[in-house]
Amino acid sequence: MLDKFFHNKVLAFRNLAVNMYNQDYLLTWEKSLNEINATILLADIFKELHKNGISLKTFETGLGISIFRDKSTRTRFSFVFACDALGLDVVSLDEEKSQVSHGETVRETAVMISFLSEVIGIRDDMYIGAGDSYMREVGQAVQKSYDKGVLAQRPSVINLQSDIDHPTQSLSDLSKLVDYFGSSENLKGKKLAMTWAYSPSYGKPLSVPQGIIALMTRFGMDVTLAYPEGYELMPEVVRQAEIFSKESTGSFRITHSLENACKEADVVYPKSWAPFEIMKQRTELLKKKDVKALDKLEQECLQQNSRFMNWECNKNLMELTRNGNALYMHCLPADISGVSCKQGEVTEKVFEKYKKDLYHQASYKPFVIAAMIFLTRMKDPLVTLEKLIRKNTSRILS
Amino acid sequence: MLDKFFHNKVLAFRNLAVNMYNQDYLLTWEKSLNEINATILLADIFKELHKNGISLKTFETGLGISIFRDKSTRTRFSFVFACDALGLDVVSLDEEKSQVSHGETVRETAVMISFLSEVIGIRDDMYIGAGDSYMREVGQAVQKSYDKGVLAQRPSVINLQSDIDHPTQSLSDLSKLVDYFGSSENLKGKKLAMTWAYSPSYGKPLSVPQGIIALMTRFGMDVTLAYPEGYELMPEVVRQAEIFSKESTGSFRITHSLENACKEADVVYPKSWAPFEIMKQRTELLKKKDVKALDKLEQECLQQNSRFMNWECNKNLMELTRNGNALYMHCLPADISGVSCKQGEVTEKVFEKYKKDLYHQASYKPFVIAAMIFLTRMKDPLVTLEKLIRKNTSRILS
Amino acid sequence: MLDKFFHNKVLAFRNLAVNMYNQDYLLTWEKSLNEINATILLADIFKELHKNGISLKTFETGLGISIFRDKSTRTRFSFVFACDALGLDVVSLDEEKSQVSHGETVRETAVMISFLSEVIGIRDDMYIGAGDSYMREVGQAVQKSYDKGVLAQRPSVINLQSDIDHPTQSLSDLSKLVDYFGSSENLKGKKLAMTWAYSPSYGKPLSVPQGIIALMTRFGMDVTLAYPEGYELMPEVVRQAEIFSKESTGSFRITHSLENACKEADVVYPKSWAPFEIMKQRTELLKKKDVKALDKLEQECLQQNSRFMNWECNKNLMELTRNGNALYMHCLPADISGVSCKQGEVTEKVFEKYKKDLYHQASYKPFVIAAMIFLTRMKDPLVTLEKLIRKNTSRILS
Question: A313 and A193 in one domain?
Fold first, then answer.
């Protein structure tokens, strides 16, 4: 039974015929649809192997490096889980302890931490125009040193959330949707509402909503992006979503009505974010270290937010969805009204109803990251995958 | 010779017939006597295997999570040693870096750090009423998610020191006593003085003395608890010690005379702790963040302490013990008069005489923790233990 | 082809017939020339094995402890790489989180972190008279506990930079030189200029220049040490370099002219350091915690430095070297004029020209550290090395 499961999955994997060896994994829209499908398929295989007590160990030794320039629990642990499961030890580059700054130094440090590394996972989502470009700088530095023979292997850079995209999140979300609807084909025509929601906080990154609209539009979903005027996303990502929706014969539209977006939706994803324009101003002020102006901007932003406290995912909103029973999604942690804050993104009742689904959604992330590492580090991922399954090593001596 | 050693130990382990799979290890008094005996027996087997260069590796991959809400060197390293020896990587949840607070968030985070974890080791000993309940909250959260199929395995929560008990310490101490007196049967009737001692510090947890009186009374020891009036322990733990002493036909008594307690003692364990009442007040003030009142309380407590500077373990006191030669124990680090402080728990002379014993006592902790993990994570610990011994893998390639 | 490479290297290793089991690795000048040669030879073998995808895993389980009392990226990661490659997990003793101070406490902590440890890597380079003696204290403590049977194995202490020497750096540099000139025999007669260089920073350790002059003089090189008057190194290390240069029939001289030192040099190593006398004063003031005097000293030192801004490695200087083409070396990070500072140790042009060489120089460090661990931890390093090569385990499942 299990054999058959893996046999079919491996066959599907073979048919995708992807080769991502020595690449980075920064934006989902830079990857082909086959590469995206291979990632979530492999994540699914890994999840099932782990559930069945079979070791995913692929590396005898080797290191994963994590660089977190913003707080993280879920993604940080998911990266450690993924590395550990594949046999890699994780060491974190703590930039306060080490001699790191910008430009030349970034490139030099990138090489110095790569002599025996297989992967560099980076979260850098605070400043518009900074995170993604930092990741590319690191990727280019290790590529150059690998080409020159200074590095014996070329670690892949994995985006653990940038200013632009959050692929480990969006691919976990995609995995959940595929499981929920039965197959990726079944996503076609399903209505997804990616909506802004009120939160009493400030400066939340744009990468989650951007990641969602630019990924789910590739699967023929009817994606609606909803936000109050002023909470625009980056225009180039919105354009990308439009292009994808046409290619996949799905649809993509923007509305400023939460209710309108959620009506007859199969999936709702209500999540707070900061307006792109304010994030840009914030980045400029941070560069100038203008603390006073930053404080003022924060106040303005919070005040602006407070005009939209009715953008909450509650019972009434959920009743508008398909059969009053849409799947509620969130990347966690959510701002839950009356629990983690006075008034937030979602009511306790709605959140509690979907808690198992939310945890299930989160449970894909370690395996998505493991798949990203595996695909970018194996010369022939199919051969290694088949060996792994054939070896069938028990993870626990028993 | 070695074979025979392990043969007999494994036989004894089989006879204890314990099954602690998927349980937490929080308070020794929640565990049966067989479970306690299985823990120290397994620790002993592990220690001997390690000494003989045999690998204890039981997990191909997997993680141990450590959460330290108070300083630690000994226990922190012991936890890492234990995990590493069994094949687990350790990652620490640093609550300042991650998005953790209380209530709902604790439960959510507990699940998020558990997707591929085998064990969660927690030290939380600062606030009365907080540490043990936090550990239970974590345990319940992972149990619930395991029951619902969100987690593929159920990590055990191991108490690395709570407000109530310090089982990794007390079981190491028990291991030392069993070794010192030759067998656990030989503990019967031995006099142990668990005594308060002066220290120029404030707010030391109650968990060590509580752990000692509630564990050693189960082995028929004559346990005396001695402290200056006002330095009471938690009443429910004292009651537990009384019950155990009756069950084991040992004895338990409280005295306010250090000399009286140590007279003809076979073992002395002089150790400073804060009065329960002050710890309770402190917890309340901490919750209110009343810094001024906290400062005042600290001053009062230190002043109260200073009235009992004569509660020191010195040559004169040791001469009162059985043949002037009782075993001196401490969980380390000790406040040594004239070394780590002006006037403390023990004189340099006494401490130096017993240094080898103290280090030996401490050397059990990594193996006690490994035994706790093994017992709570193996479906059939006997089968896995026998495999481990039969495999006889050298820890070092040689 | 590969077989032959390893065959010859292993043969050379056998002929060196070294036994460093259970020793520390603190100062290169305490090691015999055979031990030095065995270290860089083994590092070379490890580097080649790694390049060929062969696992260096020697330990099934076990820990490396790192203690960093000063910032580090390169050496910290190199230590982690080395431990991971050999199969050891690294745990860092963070002295702010744990209960560590001085004297008795150092010795106690050393034992407590050693119950299952194989190696303790220490960086402690800030105070004259402190780093090396701290390392010895740790080494003596673990030796004592090993002798008494408290520790089942005796971890080696590895100097990751002390106040006196920086052996992991100097041996990496030696490895680079041997590769650059084709053999260690070819180093004979080559001119190396270890020179001071201007930097707008203060308090840089003496251990790099000291390590270089005391190591390269053992290989018959013509070593010139150049610095402005007042920037003397420790007299005993200078004496050691003089002795070695005589033994190896090389030469050693001191000059106060940068140009003079670099004329016809085959290798230049321009690097800033603080004057020994100022470092000594600084240490005294730090002990007294005299912040005011420390600030004043820093100002004086920076002012003194600024008189020597012309001590820069630039095009004109490089033109004086042999064929205008000497090898430029640096331990990194360098203070690059116009890049990492306004005016520094080296111009961007010179630095860029040698970047590949500098990274290549740095790439030896992980393998040098791995060799140090292997040599001090294997009872019979030759036997284990031969097994490792014969096993020929692929590092990645493929």
Answer: yes
Q: What is the mean pLDDT of residues B285-309?
A: 90
The answer on B145 and B205 residing in a single domain is no
Residue with tokens 């006593």: B177
- C273 and C376, same domain (yes or no): no
Kindly state whether residues A90 and A51 are assigned to the same domain: yes
Size of interface B-C (CB pairs under 8 A): 103
Claim to verify: residue A312 and residue A211 sit in the same structural domain = yes
Q: Report if residue C273 sits inside a domain.
A: yes
pLDDT (tens digit, 9 = 90+) per residue, C69-119? Answer: 888 889 999 999 999 999 999 999 987 655 444 456 889 999 999 999 999
Under the banding of pLDDT at 50, 70 and 90, the label for residue B73 is: confident
User: Rounded to two decimals, what is the model's pTM?
Assistant: 0.97
Distance from CA of A138 to the nearest CA of C (A): 15
Q: How far is C332 from chain B (nearest CA, A)?
A: 29
CB atoms within 10 A of CB B387: 12
Q: What is the CATH number of the domain that holds C156?
A: 3.40.50.1370
B397 belongs to a structural domain: no
Contacting C with CB below 8 Å, chain A residues are 57-63, 89, 91, 93, 97-101, 103-105, 108-109, 111-113, 115-117, 145, 148, 150-152, 377-380, 383-384, 387-388, 391
One domain for residues C271 and C385: no
Does residue A85 lie in a domain region?
yes
Please report the pLDDT score of residue A283 as a whole number. Answer: 86
The neighbouring-strand residues paired with A251 are: A222
- Enumerate the residues of chain B whose CB falls inside 8 A of the CB of residue A72: 97-99
| Number of neighbours of residue C386 by Cβ within 10 angstroms | 15
Contact between C346 and C197 under an 8 Å Cβ cutoff? The reply is yes
- pLDDT value, residue B103: 59
Q: Is A60 within 8 Å of C396 when comparing Cβ atoms?
A: yes
Q: What is the number of structural domains in chain C? A: 2
**Residues in a beta bridge with C156:** C119
Question: Domain range spanning residue A198?
Answer: 168-362
Cis peptide before C155 (omega within 30 of 0): no
Q: What are the tens digits of pLDDT across the range B251-274?
A: 999 999 999 999 999 999 999 999
C264 pLDDT band, cuts 50/70/90, is very high
Residue C398: inside a domain: no
Q: For B372-386, C87-101, C141-155, C210-224, which range has the lowest pLDDT when averaged over its residues? A: C87-101
Q: For residue C102, what pLDDT is reported?
A: 47
**Among C207, C306, C327, C218, residue whose Cα is nearest residue C262:** C327
Residue A132 shares a structural domain with residue A253: no
- Do C81 and A116 lie within an 8 Å CB cutoff? yes
CB-based burial label for C370 (10 Å; 0-12, 13-18, 19+): buried
Q: Which residue has the tokens 């005993």?
A: C236
Give buried/exposed letters for A269-297 (b at 16+ CB in 10 A, else e): bbbbbbbbebbebbbbbbeeeeeeebeeb
Using a CB-CB distance cutoff of 8 angstroms, which residues of chain A are in contact with residue C332?
108, 112
Residue A138 confidence (pLDDT) above 70:
yes
| Same-domain status, C180 and C302 | yes
pLDDT, tens only, B75-95: 999 999 999 999 999 999 987
Of B85, B360, B362, the CB nearest to C116: B85
The C-alpha of B280 sits at a distance from chain C's nearest C-alpha, in angstroms, of 25
Rounded average pLDDT over A365-387:
98
pLDDT confidence band for C277 (50 / 70 / 90): confident
Q: What's the CA gap between C348 and C272, in Å, rounded?
A: 16
* Interchain contact, A57 vs B61, CB within 8 Å: yes
B397 DSSP assignment = -
Determine if residue B378 is left, alpha or beta; phi over 0 gives left, psi from -120 to 50 gives alpha, anything else beta. Answer: beta
SS3 of B349, please?
Answer: helix
